[in-house]
Amino acid sequence: MTRVTTTTGPLTGVRVIELAGIGPGPFAAMMLADLGADVVRVDRVGGGGFGAFPGDLLNRNRRSIALDLKHPDGRELLLSLVAGADALVEGFRPGVAERLGLGPEECLAANPRLVYGRMTGWGQDGPLARTAGHDIDYLALTGALHGVGRAGERPVPPMNLLGDFGGGGMMLALGVVAAVYAVRGGAPGQVVDAAIVDGVSVLATQIHALRGLGLWQDPRGANLLDGGAPFYDTYECADGRYVAVGALEPQFYAELVRLTGFPLDGDDAPDRDDPANWPALRAAWARLFRTRTRDEWAELLAGTDACVAPVLDWAEAPRHPHLAARDVFVAPDGVVQPAPAPRFSATPTAVRRPPPRPGEHTDEVLADAGVDAARIAALRAAGAVG
């Protein structure tokens, strides 16, 4: 049985149509759904295609309808759903939705107040707009990938968290919410062009500012926040696991020195803010952290202003006392997953639905749209719905 929990998230009453895709598009739709929006995911008839594997948590909190968007009746049904929606989100390459007859022109004709959210890597225009790419390519072009990695070593992909989800899906979700707010305030419907190259560049605003002030060097691993500073880095412990040190401010560094018994202390201690001293300080910290296990350091420094945390793996993280106390992870139906975020005092969010099977709610969604059972059966027989 599908478990459904009611909620009063801040986007309750907002209706969104999601054209099934992968990565940042589903993440944006998940964010909107987590916040209470009624998001209907449009999957392919037959259950194949993007994002169709069972249990994909990015698909939680929404219903799924299976439509053949190349079938005239499938296209007509989609436009009828658009007519009653606040927003539509899609992650096709530029031109694909238009070839289906479901681009902004057609959808805004069906609903002039619609917010049409588009998720791509390169954007809807520009020399690369119609070429393939993935998270790593977008990071490379924006300069962000150049800055991730150890000094003197090659750039390291930071998974796809920075591009697909931070600079992509999160920006699309923010753009859709902002545009819906504008429409409800009297603005016309509009297109939101969310490109990962745009979003990642915005995320790097502070780095560009520091470069402009002469406070950031272009080589990797030479700066305050990229592993260059010995007081903002990770260190291996006696058991081969790691701790993360983030003692940026002098008072926090002093607390770290005091609690750990760091040997380079006192009046003759090297100036920690002078990069010329960083190699010697790093070597001394590395020797010290190898004298105890990760958990011994964590126990010693927990709850202090030393700004040290154990580097937990994916399985350990949900069990950490702080994350457990805040219910950062939840386990509806026994499936451990991150809880919706952020939190709201008056309009709480929740995981209301598990990821649906493609087409699981076709009849329900169409019935809500006023399509009777006989018509649904005929559409299914014609292959327009699944």
Please give a handful of descriptors for the protein shown.
386 residues; alpha/beta; Rossmann fold; formyl-coa transferase, domain 3; 6-stranded parallel β-sheet; 3-stranded antiparallel β-sheet; 11 strands; 12% strand
Description:
With 386 residues, the protein is α/β, with parallel strands linked by helices. The chain folds into two domains: 242 residues, Rossmann fold; 74 residues, 2-Layer Sandwich (formyl-coa transferase, domain 3), CATH 3.30.1540.10. 35% of the residues lie in helices and 12% in strands. The protein has 14 helices and eleven strands. The strands form three sheets. Strands 3-2-1-4-5-6 form a six-stranded parallel β-sheet, sandwiched between helices. The chain has a three-stranded antiparallel β-sheet with strand order 7-8-9, with helices on one face. β7 and β8 form a beta hairpin. α1 crosses α6 and α5 crosses α7. The relative contact order is 0.16. The model has no long low-confidence stretch (mean pLDDT 95).
